[in-house]
Amino acid sequence: MNPLILLISFSPWILFGIIAGHSLLSLEIALGVSLLTSFIVGFKDLKKKMIVSWATITFFIIACLLVIVFQVYAIIPFLGIGSNIVLTLIAFGSLVAGLPFTMQYARQEVPRDRWDNPEFIRINQVLTAGWGVLFLFGLFNSLMDMIQPGFLGIIGDASMYITIIIGIIFTVTYPPYAKKRYAERKANQ
């Protein structure tokens, strides 16, 4: 699976985290940019019914409506938690539904005849679960920051970038590792 494609699909969330800042104006700009980015990078994926694209655009439409249009400012402190809940639900929800979100991306690069291969399915289950754990860490960070601002210090501020880097490294390195182990087990049978 191409990690760049996965990274691009999460770019609205990344931009939101970078731009949101600490003022109402920066938050409104972040929401608008993230919504626009959701449409731009997710246009083709929306047609393909990709889980990440639909959840992303839904979140940013609702957030833009509530904050920018209806000025429901009481939700602002919960946007970080809400975004992490959505990302965590994308990962674990897609696992429970039997369609790990990473599989939707992997299918774009893997021939159709391999889609039902147990190895292919298992690799995507593990990748999606890995991303879910990373998103869960982001949720924990958001909750801690709300309860006790600055609790995690610079690690908390950098956690979004750290988890993305870890996720990309995992996405790149795990499939070859799993395929090698699968081949070794098969050879030893």
Descriptive notes:
The protein is mainly α and 189 residues long. Helix content is 78%, strand content 0%. It contains eight helices and no strands. It has helices at residues 3-9, 11-19, 24-47, 51-69, 79-96, 101-106, 118-147, 153-187. Helix 1 runs antiparallel to helix 8 and helix 4 runs antiparallel to helix 5 (79-96). The longest helix has 35 residues, at 153-187. The radius of gyration is 18 Å and the shape is globular. The two termini are 28 Å apart. The mean pLDDT is 93.
The count of strands amounts to 0
Low-confidence stretches: none
Q: Into which percent range does the helicity of residues fall?
A: over 70%
Specify the number of helices: 8
Written as H for each helix and E for each strand, in order along the chain, the element string is HHHHHHHH
> What does the overall shape look like?
globular
* Share of residues in strands: under 5%
Q: Largest sheet, if any?
A: none
Mean pLDDT: 93
Output the structural class.
Answer: mainly alpha
Terminus-to-terminus distance: 28 Å
Radius of gyration over all CA atoms, rounded: 18 Å
Q: How would you summarize this macromolecular structure in one to three sentences?
A:
With 189 residues, the chain is mainly alpha-helical. The protein has 8 helices and no strands.
SSE inventory with pairings:
Blueprint: H1 3-9, H2 11-19, H3 24-47, H4 51-69, H5 79-96, H6 101-106, H7 118-147, H8 153-187
Helix pairs in contact: 1-8, 2-3, 3-4, 4-5, 5-7, 7-8
